[in-house]
Specification:
The protein has helices at 7-16, 87-98, 142-151, 161-174, 177-184, 187-196; strands at 25-37, 63-70, 77-82, 104-110, 127-131. The protein has 197 residues and is of the alpha/beta class. It has a five-stranded mixed β-sheet with strand order 3-2-1-4-5, with helices on both faces. A hairpin with a 6-residue loop joins strand 2 and strand 3 (77-82).
Length: 197
């Protein structure tokens, strides 16, 4: 695929510079963040012809952000919840993620969101970032994880962010490794990863 034509060379560079005395494993992750709010998310529903669908609706501008990294190789995941997004939060997210299995070299594929700017942040030694081209969310399987979660919060009303948090926690527990792999294992990435590592 043309937008990912540099990916094989990038993985080659990571592999050739890999210090095997420092790391016991290499893993691939997809990173993204998504906003979950109290405003009712509507979606299409099946009803009989000629009947107008009726549902409760809430218009509220309260929300939270969920950050995540998802591996199509092992099904491992890492989550963070914040009230907003920023460069500083992104830096802290990477720092905490690096501490999960610190002997693992984490290759993270991510988008070009403005708060992902890395000029002024410190990237952990065991983290390598690869950016997908701008305006190509279809190249980031983490988007599919958020869609899976939002499909299960759509058409529902939450009276508070705490109630929404409880639902998100429930969904996170349902996202076991096999399910994460089934959602994120795009062959274009996994085949290349296994070829290189």
């Amino acid at each position: 695929m043309k937008p990912l034509k540099k990916l094989p060379n990038t993985l080659d560079e990571i592999r050739t510079s890999l210090d095997k005395n420092k790391y016991t494993s290499v893993n691939l992750y997809f990173q993204d963040e998504s906003r979950f709010g109290l405003m009712t998310k509507q979606k299409r529903v099946l009803i009989s012809k000629g009947i107008q669908p009726v549902c409760n609706y809430q218009h509220s501008y309260k929300w939270l952000w969920l950050w995540g990294c998802f591996s199509p190789i092992t099904g491992d995941a890492f989550y963070w919840e914040t009230p907003l997004v920023s460069n500083d939060i992104f830096e802290k997210f990477l720092e905490d993620f690096s501490k999960q299995n610190p002997k693992e070299l984490k290759i993270i594929i991510m988008d070009n969101a403005g708060f992902h700017a890395c000029q002024n942040i410190q990237i952990p030694e065991n983290v390598k970032l690869i950016r997908i081209p701008p305006y190509t969310p279809e190249l980031n399987p983490a988007e599919k994880v958020w869609q899976w979660m939002k499909d299960r919060t759509a058409m529902k009303m939450f009276s508070s962010t705490q109630q929404l948090q409880q639902k998100i926690t429930q969904l996170v527990h349902q996202l076991n490794p096999e399910l994460i792999k089934s959602i994120t294992a795009y062959e274009i990435y996994t085949k290349l990863f296994y070829e290189k590592f």
